[in-house]
Amino acid sequence: MVSRVLIAGESWVTQSTHIKGVDSFTTSSYVTGVEPLRRALEGRGHEVVHLPAHLVPAEFPGDADALAAYDVVVLSDIGANSLQLAPEVFEQATPGTDRLGALRGWVAAGGGLLMIGGYLSFTGFEAKAAFRNTVLHEVLPVELLPEDDRVELPAGARAAVARADHPALGGVDGEWPPLLGYNRVRPRRSADVLATLNDDPLVAVAHYGAGRSAVFTSDCSPHWAPKPFCEAWDGYARVFGGIVEWLAG
Fold first, then answer.
1. pLDDT cut 70: percent of the chain above it
2. In Å, how far are 161, 168, 170, 192, 194 from 165, measured between CA atoms?
3. Which of 26, 57, 130, 219 is most buried, taking the most CB atoms under 10 A from its CB?
4. Which residues does the UniProt record annotate as the domain Putative glutamine amidotransferase (predicted)?
């Protein structure tokens, strides 16, 4: 079954300052991290729409009708502020739409939501992702920490698979390549934890109303997901494909 997937986030702008003696100048670059995930899902026949991070505040779907164009919504390395603070709200102090409330209602009505880890996922770097303070928190199969939730694993660590038979893992066999970090969360009683990292949830899924939600608490691209994981491992497409297909029902 072909699913239509919206991926919000997974892009950033980097600005560097170059200092050469008494002179300095700055350069800027635009980077996307979505390509491994996009390739994996499109390779399984799904239709993928990528909404880069800088467009999320203005263009993320704001109501059930707009969300109805998709079967699965993926939030990856994009904080709650970017979804809540549309330009008219933040810059003009004009009431707008409650997009996280709309997303919650869409999942409850049968949609599928996946949150992927990163510095601006879950609670995130210096707690700036801030999803714990939003209505979307209750949709996730995990409970979020009130503080910076990142766990850096510079030496790498391998996932421990608890439910290899669950369809959301795509039938992956054998050892997973090491990951370099993740967001620490706590599983809800209603959740199925399919894989762990350092004994914390890595992949967890749950039902929410008539819909489904899932988390992958590490990254889908570098730096937490090094190239042996997201480019060289054939299990990458099977895991993310399995999660999306389970979410789509």
1. 100
2. 10, 9, 9, 12, 9
3. 219
4. 4-248
The per-residue pLDDT of the chain, averaged, comes to 97
- Please state the φ and ψ torsions of residue 163, each to the nearest 5 degrees: -135, 70
Q: Establish whether the linkage from the previous residue to 223 is cis, with ω within 30° of 0.
A: yes
- Backbone Cα Rg of the chain: 18
202 membership: H or E segment, kind and range: strand 200-208
CA-wise closest residue to 3 among 33, 34, 44:
44
* Number of domains into which the chain is organized: 1
What residues form DSSP beta bridges with 182?
A: 151
Structure-token pair, residue 31: 């980077």
For residue 238, the model assigns a pLDDT of 97
Question: What is the pLDDT averaged over residues 124-138?
Answer: 98
Name residue, tokens 């970017």. 82
Question: Which residues does 84 contact at the CB level (< 8 Å), separation at least 6?
Answer: 99, 100, 134
Confirm whether 104 is domain-assigned: yes
Q: Domain span at residue 125? A: 4-15+28-247
Lookup: tokens for 138: 């209750």
pLDDT at residue 247 greater than cutoff 90: yes
**Strands 47-51, 4-9: pairing kind:** parallel
